Amino acid sequence: MGYRRDGYNPSGLLASDNSNAQVFKGYDSPDGEFVLTLEQSFGFALMRLQQDISGQSRGTSVALGTGFPLWRGEDWRVNIGAKINWLSHNYTLTFYGITQEQEDPEVGRFAYTPGHAFNAEVALNVEYKMTTRWRASANVSRKRLDSSLRNSPLVGKGYTRQLSIAVRYRF
Predict the structure, then answer these.
(1) 104, β-bridge pairs
(2) Is the pLDDT score of 3 beyond 80?
(3) How many contiguous H segments (helices) and E segments (strands) does the chain have?
């Protein structure tokens, strides 16, 4: 189980100036969704399947990737990774598409129906082992958006950047 929210989020912690672009005036951003996640690692390879189970998008995403250690110390680990993400038509339509009801030509928001998409992503992860059960990590990534998404009036750049920080406890 998990939760995903993609697309426009004007109230995000680090929302950029692009979040205030004219095209978003009066735009009702889609809600996030609960997803069933199946994930399997095979050595350096990773496969992740996510399916919306909340009825929000009815969309599916599949990620295939790999990661390699750059450096490992007693308590520190640095990894680099890359993956390809496939997003179904239902997924892209919900988060990157514009329906006739959402259309507003006065602000440059015209109806748009994206197809399925393939996004490429690279990431750097740093992990610190605080104790045998507690770990802290930071991950920075850059994702290049498929042209089907880049062409959406809702998208200002052809890529996204993300920083995540986490603390985990192992039972």
Answers:
(1) 109
(2) yes
(3) 2, 8
Is the distance from CB of 154 to CB of 96 less than 8 angstroms?
Answer: yes
pLDDT at 17 over 60: no
Spatial neighbors of 34 by CB under 8 A, at least 6 apart, are: 1, 2, 3, 52, 53, 54
Q: What is the mean pLDDT of residues 49-63?
A: 96
Closest CA to 39 of 4, 69, 72, 63: 63
Residue 138 to residues 12, 39, 78, 161, 164, Cα–Cα distance (Å): 18, 20, 10, 13, 6
pLDDT above 80: residue 16 = no
- Predicted confidence at residue 96, as pLDDT, reads 94
Q: Which two tokens stand for residue 161?
A: 């950047």
Quote the pTM value. 0.84
Buried-state track 144-170, b at ≥16 Cβ within 10 A, e below 16: ebbebbbebbbbeeeeeeeeeeeeeee
Residue whose C-alpha is closest to residue 61's, from 99, 95, 102, 12: 95
Region of 66 (left: φ > 0; alpha: ψ -120 to 50; beta: rest) is beta
